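assembly run, all chains below
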Amino acid sequence: MATISTEMSGPNTRECKTTGLPVCLDAQFFIRANAVMAVVFLLLGGIAAVSIALTRWPAVHLLDAEWFYRLLTFHGINMLIFWILFMEIGILYFACTSLLKTPLFSRSVAWGSFGLMVLGSVMTDYIILSGEADVMMTSYLPLLAHPLFYLGIILFAVGALIGVFNFFATVFVAWKGKRYGETMPLVAFGALTAAIIAVVALLHGAIALVPTFTFAMGWTAEPDAMWYRLIWWGLGHQSQQVNVAAMVSVWYLLSYWTCGAKVINETVSRGAFVLYILFINIASAHHLLVDPGVGASWKIWNTSYAMYLAVLASLIHGFTIPAGMEVGMRIKGYTKGLFNWLWNAPWRNPGFSAFFLSLVIFGFIGGITGVTLGTQQINITAHNTLRIPGHFHATVVGGTSLAFMGLTYYVVPLLFQREYSFRWLARIQPYVFAGGIVMMSLGMSFAGSDGVARRTWDIDAAGVYGATSHLMLAVLGIGGVLAFTGLMIYVLLTVYAVFLGKSNEGSAMEDWGTPRDIVHVGDVDPEKIGKDGNAPGTMVLVMVLLLSFVVYYFANWKALADLWFVR
Amino acid sequence: MTIQSPPQDWFHWPRGHERLWIGMALVWCMIMFVMMPYWHFNGKQNSTGESYSVEPQEFVDRTLRFAEDNKVGEFKGVPIAEPPPGGDAYLLGRMWNWYPVLKLRKGETYRLHISSADLQHGFSLQPMNMNFQVMPGYDHVLTLTPTSTGEFTIVCNEFCGAGHHMMIGKILVE
Ligand code: HEM
Ligand SMILES: [Cu+2]
Ligand SMILES: [Cu+2]
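ok done. output:
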């Protein structure tokens, strides 16, 4: 192992010419490596995505049944696990080195992590494509895949865990030496939150998948199918909480880089992150709301812990982030009216538009549908219908993935030290992707409300779905193609920039466009803005959110009340 | 700001709009919680998860016996079974069909036992759009009261292998 140097200067570091942050060259290397792998898996998952979206559009019905189920398995795993986790390990390395002014703890540990993740993901993908694992990413027992399918995921998870360990070790060194000052910066604190939850998630994954692997090998008895669901969703759900924490951290980062956002109140923002750690409900509960084996009080308690404090945390960030941006913009001089700060935001900067669209899609579609569908009784009308993918494509795709795309528009110039070409395309990319995902998510949600099942190759055999369902599935298909177009623009531009982009070594990156400071008009005191916790424009926005939430929530209870009686 | 260490006096209680919003959000979260126990006692649609452990083969036998004892006709080669009002009904999910076809009466209450002979399945009643998980080894009891009449279709909405999308069943309500 390389000797651990604790000096954040010298041959192994450089200073970022744009942000002034120190860059650890080891970390930079592994951030690049992880980001490249992430984009590769996004591309693979994306090709599968457009194929299955075009299959669910009945008028096109692209794939045959076998390949639909195969590529659906492939899509879920490559996107939700590989793309997201490679990206997150990169984000963790950035947060613990540059933000905490500390070199990466260990190169060899980072190699071990990266190697296992690559090995595991390639193994799993190979097995899926060879047709030995048509089991969906959840691989619910007694469905059984080839043992290497589980082994691949286990190796990948262990690799990710090792990367998280490298992060913790670096944070520890930084904390011991007080290298970042007295208090950890907010974005790093958010990353720490994500890392802590990731450990819990990955341990659940091991507990569920190791016995399943040994069973598949014929070494041990079959684990109970209900037990498997409970533990598997401990992985499946907590990792969504990891994604939320990572995405929120990226929001804080991008809002600062693109429009100088402030933190209105460090206590509140940090407190909300702590709520994520403490109150992710017995994570699996809202996936088992219509299951046998667990009773009503278990379901009600564990899906909410009596007051939905993890949801509260997201509602808090949903205020503090736009409010921080509003305050930052007002300090720059955009003080007119309620929304002058918003209209003057850098809408042509893909880092900004990706961040803001991600915030809106996550909040208005993903968040509202998620909490509503995760309500114990309302889940009767949603479980395993297309409403569920409709919900999570607004959280983990329109939310997390889009935020990560926005981040890339800064990572490539700052850490690959290469500039994007075809900049006009990059400027529209977040809108294309967001538009496609919103369309697809709505198509899924409405088809699901009509009873159309998820994970189903053909809906006509049932003979119960009419014109509305077919129309909504067409919306899904068209939205899917649009989203795929946005995804491909992102992948191609990024690959081009990384390999052929103009180098910016030795100078600052080309500005994507950030709002200028303008002269304050009237008698505002820039020093005072935001100090009183006020952000009037944001207050209006969150009131609209709350109102939409209340309407959607009670409309769902109303629809439930019309159904057959059941206990 | 968000990426620098904050100044030393960073601990502040929330103020102004921020405090107002946190208060409103907290109240809303509590309302959402209260709705669930409220509906559990006062609502008519609940998923209580009542279930008993059962060997898959044993459940198959019970369902076959039920279908034989209560047979009132046939629907495309599948027996139609009509349980007595207030009585037990059995529905078996297996790759890739639902057995038998059930005939129920509007306004009567039945104890519907659902389970699987092999993989996990999804009981999805259409066009009502009511969905429950079907697990091998678990006798999942739904205390069900149809409130409308007609021909209803059971779609499987948990992936259960190559023929998953063809797994269709029927419930007829008079
Ligand atoms: C171009 C973008 C995308 C398109 C067009 C797309 C489309 C789809 C479609 C059509 C389904 C199948 C729904 C069903 O029949 O059950 C699906 C499932 C899914 N998607 Fe995507 N998706 C995209 C991006 C993503 C991303 C970026 C992620 C994760 C970060 C993701 C995660 C998932 C997951 C987890 C499933 C469920 C798989 C399963 O049921 O096992 N998708 N997607
Ligand atoms: Cu979940
Ligand atoms: Cu099925």
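Residues 65-99 of chain A form the longest helix (35 residues).

Chain A has one domain: 15-511+525-563.

not gonna interpret more than that til we talk
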